[in-house]
Amino acid sequence: GVSSAPGSAGDTSLLGSATVWPLKRYGRFLPPNDGDEEGQSTSWKVFESNEESGPLVLTIVESGHFFISQERTVLEGFSLIDSHKWLKIVRRADCLLLRAQTKQNQCRMFRVQFGGSSREEMQEHCCSCVHKLSQYLPVQGPEEQSLSQDTQAMDTEHAPDEPLPDSCTSLGERRSVAQLAQWALRQRSALPPALWQPAWSARELGPLIRLCLMDQHFPAFVEDVEKELHRLAEE
C-alpha cells in the first residue's frame, strides 16, 4: 500500500520524508521517427511491475520532487515546484496521463497505472496520489479532458488517437542512479536539456540559501552530499 515515512524513498531520503505508491505499470510514449511513413502507428514503451524486473513505485518527496523508479533505476525524475507552467495531468480511473512541455518547445508524454490487490485499492492509490499532486498543480478528470485510450491500451502498447505535435521528442530515457549522480557533479552544459531549467528562480533561492547558511551543520551536510554523489556515481 501507500507508505509515508522519513527515508522510505531509498536514494531520495536526503531530501526528506516521502510518500510512495505502488504501480502496476508505467508507459512512455514513443513519437514516430523522422523516417517513419506518414500515418504509421507509434507506440508506448511499457515497464511492468513484476518479480523479474522488480516493483515499480511512484515517489513524491516532501521537497516537491517526483520520481518513478524500478529497483535502483530512475525512470522519471523532476521537481513539481512551478510544474503547473509546463506539466498537465489527467486522471482516469486508476491511471494518470502526464504531458510535459519544455522551454525548448519539446514535449513528452507518459502514463502510470497504480497497483493494488483489487480495482478498488488501485483507484484508492490513484486518488491518494492525485490529492498529493494537487498541492502543486491541478489534476484534470476525464470529464474535463477526454483520454483517447482506455486503461487496457497499455497492454497493447498502441499509441493514443490524439496526435502529438511534430516537435515532440522523448526526453525520458532510462537513467540509473549512478548516471544521475554523475550529471549532478558536472557542469550545466553536460546535463541533458530536460534538466537545464531550475525549479526555482534565483530570487526565490535567496531566502532558502540564507537559511541554510545560518545552520551551523549546513557545510558538513553539503560535504556529505558531495561524498554520497561521488559514491553513487561510482556504482
UniProtKB/TrEMBL annotation:
InterPro entries: REC114L (IPR029168)
Region feature (Disordered): 141-167
Pfam families (alphabetical): REC114-like (PF15165)
Secretion signal, residue range per the UniProt entry: none
Compositional bias (Polar residues): 143-154
Protein name (record): RE114 protein
Lineage: Eukaryota, Metazoa, Chordata, Craniata, Vertebrata
